[in-house]
Amino acid sequence: MSDVYVKTDGAHHPSEKHFSVVNPSRMCQPMGAVQALMGVKNSITLIHGSQGCSTYMRFQLTRHLREPVEVASTALNEKTVIYGGEYNLMKALKNITEKQKPSIIGVVSSCLTETIGDDMAGIIEKFKEANLGKQLPEIIPISTPSYAGSHIEGYDKAIKGLVEHLSLNSTPNGKINVVPGHMSPADIGEVKDILKTMECDSIILADTSESLDAPLSESVLGLPNCGTTIEEIEDTANSSGTITLSKHADSAGKFLEKKFSIKSVAIPTPIGLRNTDSFINAICDLTDLEIPAQIERDRGRLMDAIVDAHAYNYHRKVAIFGDPDFVVAMASFVAEMGMLPVVLCIGIKSAKFMEDIKTIPEGLSGYEGFSPVILEGADLYDLEKELETTKVDLLIGNSYGAEIAKKEGIPLFRMGFPVFDRMGAQRISSMGYNGSIKTADALTNMILDHYYDEAGYEL
Amino acid sequence: MEPIIETFESRKKHMCIKGSGISIPECNTPVLPGTVTQRTCVFGGARIVLMPITDSIHLVHGPIGCAACTWDIRGSKSSRGDLYRKGCSTDLTEKDIIFGGEKKLFDTVIELNKLYKPGAIFVYATCVAGVIGDDIKSVCKHAEELTGCRVIPVQSEGFQHYNKTKGHWIGCDALMDYVIGTAEPKTQTPYDINIVGEFNVAGDVWGVKPLLEKMGVNIISTISGDSEVEEIAMSHRAKLNIVQCQKSSNYLADKMEKKYGIPSIKVNFFGIDNTLTSLMLIAEFFNDPEMTERTKKIIENGIEGVDEKIKEYKERLSGKTVALYVGGNKAWSLIRAFEELGMEVIMTGTKNGMKEDYERIKETVKEGTLIVDDANSTELARLLKKYRPNLLISGAKEKYISMKLGVPFCDFNHDRISAFAGFNGFVDFAKAVDAAVSSPVWDLTSTRLKSTKWSKFTKMRRN
Fold this sequence. Notes:
The complex is a heterodimer.
Chain A: E1 5-8, E2 21-22, H1 29-37, E3 43-48, H2 51-65, E4 71-73, H3 78-83, H4 86-100, E5 104-109, H5 111-116, H6 120-130, E6 138-142, H7 151-166, E7 176-179, H8 185-197, E8 202-204, H9 230-235, E9 241-244, H10 251-260, E10 263-266, H11 273-286, H12 293-313, E11 317-322, H13 324-336, E12 340-346, H14 351-357, E13 373-376, H15 380-389, E14 394-397, H16 402-408, E15 412-414, H17 432-451
Parallel strand pairs in A: 1-13, 3-4, 3-5, 5-6, 7-8, 7-9, 9-10, 11-12, 11-14, 12-13, 14-15
Chain B: E1 15-17, H1 42-50, E2 56-61, H2 64-68, E3 88-89, H3 94-99, H4 102-116, E4 120-125, H5 127-131, H6 136-147, E5 150-154, H7 165-178, E6 192-198, H8 205-215, E7 218-224, H9 229-233, E8 240-243, H10 246-260, E9 264-266, H11 272-286, H12 289-303, H13 306-317, E10 321-326, H14 330-333, H15 335-340, E11 344-350, H16 355-364, E12 370-373, H17 377-387, E13 391-394, H18 396-404, E14 409-411, H19 422-437, H20 441-444, H21 456-462
Parallel strand pairs in B: 2-3, 2-4, 4-5, 6-7, 6-8, 8-9, 10-11, 10-13, 11-12, 13-14
Antiparallel strand pairs in B: 1-12
């Protein structure tokens, strides 16, 4: 493989854009923390900041998931900015404890409270002291200044915060901890199906599969009535190992490894054949489980789906944008389908991503000299500019890619976050053999719709 | 008095029923910390007023989240360019927080001007930009001198106030201080007007403009739906301001009256009655017999066939109840339109209402109507459960709370899909309301697997 051609921070357009972000392709840390905490049963997230933070995040989440989303706010105002947010935070904890009765409150900081220097952990301690003897929920401070990192780091910090505060060493449970690193409820559902088929006892950290794809019922209003429980989070310290399905969300696994000597592996997001193989193998490595016939059968069905579709997909050029783990896994999968992932765009800078990209051609013929254009720390402006010169047949990414796709006259395969202009974002799955089968079919049908006529002949 | 629903002690006075003692809820108080508020921040308020200006760059000076969560969400349409839909941020990072973000802001403004040659660059201060003390005014001034492009500071730190209305005012002030009165129209007529507080959500302004133009008025600018900044710059030469969203824009109209002597008329183009009253008010203002004649014609033509077109919808909707929980103006401006469909508004409320807003609501609603201020998500769910309206009008955050409860929902905010203003808009409004209320899905949502009989709730709904 030749060197990957990297264009960093808009360096591709040196005369044009150095400073501004135009059409962002990433969100802020608190957003990721909210996403993680929504997978914890009977939990609520409290954002310590201005009321707009929680409201605008809820807006984005709710239009993607088409579910009500509850995020509380400490609703800071000018006075609290001068004198500190202690009063509002104490008051908020009291109000939530009394009225919402959650099992757990994730207190997430914002750029405002980080900058004014509120000691959230200290204030929480003070609150606990003031309420000695009373039944209080678990209260977990999660520091997520939005001027650092992105929603990916926020997700990682929240998951780590949960195990740091709750994990308790007792007796081995023979379970596997799984950190999905991805917010699609349907994807987590696919992961759970695999674990169930493998007969692998597991703790999903955190499990949004039911809370964020809930039935039409008033009982689902309010705090999530399903998801990972506190007892499960405590029990993560007794598992046989942690598998993180994302290279960027493995802090919780590393923490458990360091503190409780629990093996931790971070593997590529299990999208496509080889990445799902890695997941199954990782489960087998940590347990003495055998691979059941059903898994072999699903794997065979995925291969069958790829073979069925290969004639339509061969050497279709694809651009992919979004979170690094998603982009690299999806690139690997479309390569398995015979497509060429020629432009890859991520919102952050990541050495792990750059390493992973190099593994895409492994074991695949026709990828000698594979050299995608990589836009690192890039926005959708950079992507748009790149696609003006590097022409592709298909764009894969969230709804914000629609304008670019329209301009280029190519279809947009909507995946990632947010997807607000199509139905069913919470039900889009790409993980595991079965999720990959659905994706392979949908992708190929999109190619058929755009590049073949009604009779099935190439246009 | 028995509380309307179970809630915090301090929140009880924020809900009242017209005709039962207190007729105006307590309002304009800070959000109770720890509740799931439906409010946004001051930055959001300012952005709402200014974002529809189509030829401008809206640059958010702050960390990425403020821009990433709010770009291109307004639903304002444009008949011209789409520069306003870009999400621009200075993307402040740790280093900028420590050393200040002014240099980065300056460089970003210069760069964006070079890339897009916009009509203006609006620079919004976010919470953290305010806390680190970036002097965005002087940066904007300096950048404007260098580029010749209008670079307009919007001092909209989110934490400034608990009421988004302050953000509206800040947005209006930015226009007053930096735009309005800075250019002269080529020609002037005695019938020059501005449409103020109309944001062209889903294309509303296109249902209003043709009516006004047929009357013979000359529209200098719309502030700010489907507008360009240069037109707003000339708006001080108007003889009249007509104000649609009085929540966000009376403030601007008042300021323009003080500074430029432009009188204003409050108008409302939602519903037939409101539309024709508004048109006649404008005609009366100009007091030109020919215009009055023309206006009468327009109204005649406008209402012709409307009854016939909405007949089918009205038959299904008559007697059904409506709850409104909206950003401001719509809490009273829609009531008459629903009555024209034979529907009854049983609850209305706003997230950021001031005393005068609730006075207005009180005047408009019938006795027995529930009026609610700043309901958080729990309260909203409880109110819907208690009153079981046949329809909730609100925005994206409330949508799924309502639908999970089996309460039909119609989006009147960012995600609205058709224009509702004017005569034709009213027919589309009737159609959209019917689609929300009369869909057979609501018959299914209350069925149970083990019984094919209609449940009690469905029976209630059907009656």
